[in-house]
Structure formats: C-alpha cells, structure tokens
Amino acid sequence: MLNSFILTLNAGSSSLKTAFYDTATGGASLMTGQVDRIGSAPHLKATWADGTRVERDLDNPQAGHAGAMKAVLRLVEEGAPEARIEAVCHRIVHGGPDRTDSVVLTEAIIKELSALAPYAPLHQPHNLSGVRGAMEAFPDALQVACFDTAFHRGHPWVNDTFALPREYYDKGVRRYGFHGLSYDYIASRLAADYPTLYAGRVVVAHLGNGASMCGLHGGRSIASTMGFSAVDGLPMGTRTGQLDPGVLLYLMTEEGMDAAAITDLIYRRSGLLGLSGLSNDMRTLEASDDPAARQAIEYFTFRIRRELGGLAAALGGIDGLVFTGGIGEHSAHVRAAVCEGMGWIGIDLDRQANRTHGPDLTAPGGRVKVLTLATDEEGVLAREGRRHLAA
Ligand code: ADP
C-alpha cells in the first residue's frame, strides 16, 4: 500500500518540473521529473525512488506546455498507478492585485485567474490548462494554486506603481514582480539558517533562464526588478529585460511591427541569445571565445550590478546578497563578475569559496554576507499543499 502524496507541477518559461512529496512527512518522495526545452525539442527525464530512470523525447515538439503536462501525467499513471494523490500544487504565474497567498482552486477562482490572462498571456493560459489537466487526472485531489506574484504584493506604493495616470493603477497596471516562490523559499532558508541576516536587508538574485532580483527586508519583499510583466528588469536567456518604451514605439511606427512580432522579439529573440547571436544558455556562452558571447555576459552582469545598487537604495542599505537559480547557483564566473568592484557597498567575494560554490562566499572581513543557495520552488509548492490539506 503506497502512502498518500502531494504532486507539484512547476511550469517555467521552457520547462515543467514535477515531484512527489509524502503528505505525512512533507519529504520529497517517489519521483522527480522534468520536461526541458519546451517549444523547441521537448525532452522528459524522470527518476523514480527505486532508481528507475525514464528519458524520452516528446512525440510532438509543437505541443508546448500542454504536451509537456500530458507527458508528465502519463508518466505518473505509468509509474505510480496506485499512488493516492491528495493534492496537486500548481505554480501559477499571476494572482492579480489581491492574491497575497496560495489558494485552493474552485471554479470561481479559476474564472478569476482566467480573466488575468491578458496580464501574462504567455504563461497564464498554460498554467490554467495544466490545472484542467490535473483536475481530470486526479478528480479527488485538492488543486492548490501558488502565485509567482503573491510574495511581492506587500510592496510599498512607490514600488508598485508606474508614473501613468492613476486610472491605470486602478485597472491593475502595476509592478507585480515574479519568481515569488523562489524568493519565498530563500527567505525561509534565511530564517532557518541565517536569522540575523533574515531580519536585515538582503538582495536576492534569481538568475536562471528567466532572471530577476528582489530586495528583502525582514523576509518581506520590498522591491523587485520585474514589473508588470516577466520581461522587465534584468536581461534573460531570450528576454530583453528593461527596455526604453520609446524603442517599442519606434519598432511599431518605423518597422511596422505589431504586438505579436514585438512579443516574439522581446520574449524569444533577445537577451543573451539576441546579444550573442549564439545561445541563451550561459554554459554555452561561457565556453565560447566569441567576443559577442563575452559581451552578452558582460551586459548581463553589468545590469545585475546596476539593479543591485538600485535595490540597496530601495532597502536603505544592504546586509546580504544571495545568488540562486541555475546561473546563480553554478556560475562562479557570473558571481565574480557581479561582485567585482563592489567593495564600495561592502561586498567582498572570497574567490576560493566562490570557485567551490560556498555556500558562504564572503571574504574574511566582508561587511555584506554573500551566499549562494539552491532554490526549491517545488518545496514551497509542497509546503503550501500540506498547509491547505491540514486546514
Ligand atoms: P529556468 O529559469 O528555466 O528554471 P534554470 O534556473 O534551470 O532556468 O537556469 C538555467 C541557466 O543556468 C542556463 O543559462 C544554464 O546555462 C545555467 N547554468 C546551469 N548550470 C551552469 C553552470 N555549471 N555554469 C554556468 N551556467 C549554468
């Protein structure tokens, strides 16, 4: 007889991660899996607790996130047909202005979240189709939504608004911020392992294929580099990051580009890929001696340094800097480049600790604690699932 489980579904820009958690203990259990390269060459990898590995290309590369979700659900059916799934926890990109917490999904809430699709057209519909798929596959399970925006909803007004006429703020045009599950996890790690730092002012850099930074004070988000959409702030694998809106007007009036063409340009063809002309993948860029690849990394790290200064100002100082996400956790080169010349703000990196990935990268005598911590968005999804099951 198998125990009962919480299933987590974490849809990123080009990946879908899934994991089982034991409902009773909260521990990761049974299987972890991931579909990568959604949209280009989707590939599924999973490992079951008995060591069995599953690896396959998905039949239909065009099937996008919906295809990835189907593949994950099929994997669960094949590998654990008798597992009792008590809750399915979904990472949902947008909770709108009022959702400050995770929630058990009902038809009314799904309708409310569907109405937010214009805020996140590239992600919200995929997320909700994932919810529908999971409801069909596990009709008796609690479906829990955890929002990327919720962690940031306590931003002070100056970090929540744009300088547009007020009616737009009231209509929901705000600086939402994203990657909230990752920041929530890092805040909980700081609370557990670095309580003094947790109480202070910390900048967290979530550097993955999608990238953003967040200023935490006392574990609460004060400001984020991402704004209304997940294209703002830092340059990313294929996204521009901050872009003068005048550029968009120019593209529309002079190059005749419409919304779809601009979306494709700023979300899929820009960032590290656009600048390097080579790849969106940091490993590929670091391995290349092409000057354009070096420049792409230079632009990436320079923008991180600018935002670091801005977030430190928003926090009124800085006590800690935490690197996380695929690049933040693994790229000693990027971390060193970000911290280079940051002594004026109190950041001094221990080069040897950086090479061996810390987790404490602070040079002796460094005033600002520099850490690299692995994020765990699935762990936050499972935590929320247990909380709702216990309620
Ligand atoms: P996502 O936003 O899709 O979840 P990840 O957090 O997995 O992305 O981060 C993916 C990025 O991390 C890629 O650019 C990848 O090249 C980079 N990365 C992973 N491992 C390393 C490494 N050892 N050195 C440099 N970059 C790395």
TrEMBL record:
Query: Which keywords does this Swiss-Prot/TrEMBL entry list?
Result: ATP-binding, Cytoplasm, Kinase, Magnesium, Metal-binding, Nucleotide-binding, Transferase
User: Any keyword Kinase?
Assistant: yes
Q: Where does substrate bind?
A: 91
Any one GO biological process = acetate metabolic process
**Free-text cofactor note:** Mg(2+). Can also accept Mn(2+).
Q: Which InterPro entries match?
A: Ac/propionate_kinase (IPR004372), Aliphatic_acid_kin_short-chain (IPR000890), Aliphatic_acid_kinase_CS (IPR023865), ATPase_NBD (IPR043129)
Which reactions fall under this protein's catalytic activity? acetate + ATP = acetyl phosphate + ADP
Pathway field of the UniProt record reads: Metabolic intermediate biosynthesis; acetyl-CoA biosynthesis; acetyl-CoA from acetate: step 1/2
Among the Pfam families in the record, one is Acetate_kinase
- Residues bound to Mg(2+) are 10, 377
Q: Which domain of life is it from?
A: Bacteria
Which Gene3D superfamilies does the UniProt record give?
A: 3.30.420.40
What cofactors does this protein use?
Mg(2+); Mn(2+)
An example of a Gene Ontology cellular component annotation for this protein is:
cytosol
The EC designation for this entry is: 2.7.2.1
Q: What family name appears in the similarity comment?
A: Belongs to the acetokinase family.
- List, alphabetically, the HAMAP family matched: Acetate_kinase (MF_00020)
Q: Which PANTHER family match?
A: ACETATE KINASE
User: Cross-referenced NCBIfam families, in alphabetical order?
Assistant: ackA
Assembly description:
Homodimer.
**Summary of the function given for this chain in its UniProt record:** Catalyzes the formation of acetyl phosphate from acetate and ATP. Can also catalyze the reverse reaction.
Give the protein's recorded name: Acetate kinase
Which organism encodes this protein?
A: Marinibacterium profundimaris
Q: What gene is this protein a product of?
A: ackA
